[in-house]
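User: I'm preparing a small set of examples for a lab meeting where we compare how different chains pack in three dimensions. I only have the primary sequence for this one, and I'd like the structure in token form so I can line it up with the others. Please keep the answer compact; I'll paste it straight into my notes.
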Amino acid sequence: MKKQIKNNISWVGVIDWELKTFHGSEYSTHHGSSYNSYLIEEEKTVLIDTVWSPFSKEFVENLEKEVDLKKIDYIIVNHGEVDHSGALPALMEKIPDTPIYLTANGVKSLKGQYHKDWNFNVVKTGDKLDIGNGKELIFVEMQMLHWPDSMATYMTGDNVLFSNDAFGQHMASQELFNDKVDQCVLFEEAEKYYANIINPFNPILRKKLEEILSFNLPIDIIATSHGIIWRDNPVQIVEKYSEWANDYQENQVTLIYDTMWNGTKRLAEMIAEGISSVSPDTVVKVFNVTKTDENDLITEVFKSKAVLVGSPTFYNTCMHTMEGFIHLVKALKFKNKKAAAFGCYGWTGESAKILRGLMEDAGFEIIGDDHRAMWAPDETALNDAFLYGKEIAKKL
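Assistant: Understood. Below is the structure token output for the 396-residue chain.
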């Protein structure tokens, strides 16, 4: 069932209440998500994006109830990834000649995935499409936000920016708009989305935000491709992106560790106490990497000015859980953050050195020496960890 967004613009997407992981199992979606597709009915009828392929049949059947498919004049594909284009093959079986507007890379994406040569019309930034009643669609390439084919579409007259993956979040809700949902959950999910998906492209995003603002286009609504639509002060999420894109950090230190027999866990807790004793205004958080969702952990790294990583030595190295997590951290290209390493050991004690190297390779500035404790930490070792925490705090 379509839901009105503004005037002749309707939402015709799908809410996925049961979604728990995204991008395979790479991204956790605790609050589900939605695949937002939009129908514009001016003198010309325009469909902007479709939905993920498992919902193809449902999407096409519902769309047929709302509009004669043969009356769709144009299809806009802002992004070719399957969560946006997955229902396109089923739709094009019914209206095979309908013009599709997309970037040059979008053509490559759709041909590569669906092996069809549909009626593609390539657009670039600044190109316009007249949809009647004095309104136009203006296209803005958003290359690498977050795929090479991405673009946004702006509708004049109604002042709606169909932003695709930018400014979105994974959140299922019967309510479509930002002023109708829990604000804490909304901004937590928006920040998590940014930290885990957008952060690697900060330099590109900064330039793109400047470009969009330079157009001086009034924006009344930002209609995202996932989650909640911004209609109440929509520019607030643009301002958040501007803040997050500038190597964001809060006054937070995060300790992330794995442990075998709780020795490294005890070190982490004592180091945390040491940091807090010197810097009580600093938020200090401690996480076991095996007991915390990794995407939630990435959000904590995103917020942190320093990250301390710990592991016991196991097979002459650190535990694979920590190495795998730091691999993810490296991929997300965090900047302007500090790091240190710690861990227990029984025989050879290489883990802290290896962790330090991994964090340095991930772009973190290493502060302080590695902290190691042999065997299960006694009172002396725990006090040493507390003192180490104090020294770390002084270097922040």
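A couple of notes for your slides: The longest strand covers residues 338-345. The domain at 3-244 is CATH 3.60.15.10 (Metallo-beta-lactamase; Chain A).

User: Perfect, thanks.
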